[in-house]
Design goal:
heterodimer; A: Immunoglobulin-like; Immunoglobulin-like; 5-stranded mixed beta sheet; 3-stranded mixed beta sheet; 12 strands; B: about 40% helix
C-alpha cells in the first residue's frame, strides 16, 4: 500500500489544474459531477446488495427451509431497484431541462471551431460581417453567457474537449456538429483534441479563457482591429520580408496583403498565450525557434522550413512579436 | 553434439537466442530533430549526406511531402512523368546520384526544370533527392515503406527496381 501511495497521488493530480474534469467551471461539467456521484451511490449500493445476497447464498446450508426469511429481503431489493432507477431517471431529466433552460434570457455567443492537423481555427460569428472575428488556438468566453459552438473539421476526425466545461464532441470532415457550453467561473482552462488525429495529436491544445463580460468585450474589440503598423525599423523589415515570401500563402494578417487561410491567422498572434496550438509559450525565443525549424518541436506538422538568414529571421520575429 | 554434455547444451539455447537479438541493437536512427540550415546544397562531405538522407525513413518521408508541396507532381506526376520526364524508370539525363539530383533541383536544367535555389533549403533538397531516388527503387529497402500509400494492392514504386538501373548508392552500413 505504501508503494501505491505515490501512484495514487499522481493519479489524483489529474483532478486539479487547467484540464480538470472535476473543477465544475462550466454547467456541463458541474452536471456531470452531480450525475456521476448519484450514479456511483445508487449502483454502488446495488453492488453491495448483490454481494450480500451472494455471501448469504454461500453461508446458507443446502436445502435448508428459508421460509419467510427471504421474502422481505426480496421485496426490499425490488423496491430499491425501482426507487433507484426512478431517482436516476429524474436526476437525468432535471439536468437535461436545466441545461436546456440555462441562460435562455440572453442571446448565445455563436462560435465556429474548425479543427485542422494540428491546430484550431476559432471564428466568432456575428450577423454583421465586419464583426466576424477569426483567431486560432485560443477561445475567449464571457462568464455566464451560453455559447453555441459549431464544430467542423477540414482533414480528419478530431474531438473538441475542454474537460473543465463539458464533455467531448467530435469534429468530423463533411459534417457539422454542435456543442453548448455555459462557463460559470472565471479562469484559465485547457482544451485538448480527444480523438487521435495523426502524428501531432498530443500537441493540439486549446487555451480557454473565461473572463468577465467587460474584459471579453474589450478583447473582442482589440481583436477586431487590423494589425498595427510596425513601429521599429527591424519590425518593418520583417513585415516586408513576410509579405514578399511564402508566409502569405498560408497565413493571413488583417490590414496587410497576407490572406492565406491554410494556417492560423496571425493578425494578433502576439496577444496569444502560446504558439503552435499550446506547444510552446509565446515569446520571441519560441517564435524564432519555431520559424527556423518548425519540424523540430512539432515533427510532421504542415509548416515547411523557409530558407532565411539570421538577420531576416530576427526581423520576422520582431514583426510577429509586435502583432498584439 | 557429443562434445557438449547436457549441462553445457542447456545454456546454449538462451545464449543463441540472445545472439539473435543483437542485430536489433542496430536500429535506424530517425532524425526529426535536425538542423534545417545545416546542409548546403553543394556540401563537402557528400558520402556522409548520402547516408544521412538516403537511408533514413524520416528524411525520405519529408522528401515525399516536399514533392507534393513544391508541386513537383505538376510536371513529373506521381513519379510517372507527364510534362516532365518520368522519375520511376532507369533513364537519368543528368545523373542518378543524390548529388546530381540535388544539383538538378538547386540550379534547374534546360527545357523546363526550374531552379529551386531560393525556394528550398539545402536540407530540403537532400530530402527531395532521397525521395526521388526511392521512386525508382534506388533507396535502401529498410528505409522505404514496403506498402503503397494508396489502397491499391500493387507493389509500391519504392520496392520495384527498373531493369539495368545504376547500382544503389548507399555505402555499406
Amino acid at each position: 500500500m505504501r508503494r501505491l501511495m505515490p501512484l495514487l497521488a499522481l493519479a489524483a493530480s489529474g483532478c486539479a489544474g487547467v484540464q480538470s474534469m472535476t473543477g465544475g467551471a462550466g454547467l456541463g461539467s458541474r452536471q456531470f459531477n452531480t450525475l456521476m456521484l448519484a450514479f456511483l451511490i445508487v449502483t454502488g449500493l446495488a453492488y453491495l446488495f448483490v454481494l450480500l445476497f451472494l455471501g448469504g447464498a454461500f453461508v446458507r446450508r443446502r436445502r435448508e427451509n428459508v421460509g419467510n426469511f427471504m421474502r422481505p429481503l426480496l421485496i426490499g431489493w425490488t423496491a430499491f431497484i425501482l426507487v433507484g432507477i426512478a431517482l436516476l431517471t429524474l436526476l437525468s431529466f432535471l439536468d437535461d431541462r436545466q441545461s436546456a433552460l440555462a441562460g435562455t434570457g440572453q442571446p448565445p455567443l455563436k462560435i465556429e471551431i474548425t479543427a485542422n492537423q494540428w491546430w484550431w481555427q476559432v471564428t466568432y460569428q456575428d450577423p454583421m460581417a465586419s464583426r466576424t472575428l477569426i483567431t486560432a488556438n485560443e477561445l475567449h468566453l464571457p462568464v455566464g453567457r451560453p455559447v453555441e459552438i459549431t464544430l467542423k473539421a477540414s482533414d480528419v476526425i478530431h474531438s473538441f474537449w475542454v474537460p473543465g466545461l463539458a464533455g467531448k464532441q467530435d469534429l468530423i470532415p463533411g459534417r457539422t456538429n454542435h456543442i453548448r457550453l455555459l462557463p460559470r467561473r472565471i479562469g484559465l482552462l485547457r482544451g485538448q483534441c480527444a480523438e487521435f488525429c495523426g502524428m501531432q495529436h498530443a500537441h493540439m491544445a486549446l487555451d480557454v479563457i473565461v473572463e468577465p463580460p467587460a474584459r471579453f468585450a474589450a478583447w473582442y474589440a482589440a481583436q477586431l482591429r487590423p494589425a498595427s503598423r510596425p513601429a521599429t525599423a527591424l519590425a518593418q523589415a520583417g513585415q516586408a520580408w513576410f509579405l514578399s515570401h511564402q508566409c502569405v500563402t498560408c497565413h493571413s494578417i488583417a490590414g496587410t496583403t497576407a490572406g492565406g487561410r491554410t494556417g492560423p491567422d496571425l493578425t494578433h498572434v502576439a496577444s496569444r498565450r502560446t504558439i503552435a496550438a499550446g506547444t510552446l509559450p509565446m515569446n520571441p525565443g519560441s517564435l524564432a525557434g519555431w520559424i527556423a525549424n518548425p519540424q523540430g518541436p512539432k515533427p510532421g506538422n504542415h509548416m515547411p522550413t523557409i530558407a532565411m538568414s539570421g538577420a531576416e529571421l530576427s526581423a520576422v520575429v520582431a514583426y510577429l512579436g509586435s502583432l498584439e | 553434439m557429443e562434445c557438449f554434455g547436457p549441462t553445457l547444451r542447456r545454456p546454449l539455447i538462451p545464449v543463441c537466442a540472445a545472439l539473435l537479438m543483437l542485430p536489433a541493437c542496430q536500429r535506424e536512427e530517425r532524425g526529426p530533430r535536425t538542423d534545417p540550415a545545416a546542409e548546403a546544397s553543394a556540401p563537402a562531405d557528400i558520402p556522409a549526406l548520402i547516408v544521412r538522407y538516403g537511408g533514413d525513413a524520416w528524411q525520405i518521408g519529408e522528401g515525399q511531402r516536399l514533392f507534393r508541396w513544391m508541386n513537383c507532381t505538376g510536371c513529373h506526376g506521381n513519379g510517372g512523368g507527364g510534362m516532365g520526364p518520368s522519375l520511376m524508370d532507369d533513364e537519368w539525363r543528368y545523373g542518378s546520384s543524390m548529388a546530381d539530383i540535388v544539383r538538378t533541383i538547386d540550379w534547374g536544367r534546360p527545357n523546363g526544370m526550374p531552379a529551386f535555389h531560393d525556394k528550398l533549403t539545402g536540407q530540403q533538397m537532400w530530402q527531395l533527392a532521397a525521395y526521388v531516388r526511392s521512386l525508382s527503387g534506388l533507396a535502401r529497402k529498410d528505409a522505404v515503406p514496403s506498402r503503397a500509400d494508396t489502397l491499391a494492392p500493387s507493389v509500391p514504386l519504392t520496392q520495384v527496381r527498373p531493369l539495368d538501373s545504376p547500382p544503389a548508392e548507399a555505402p555499406p552500413q
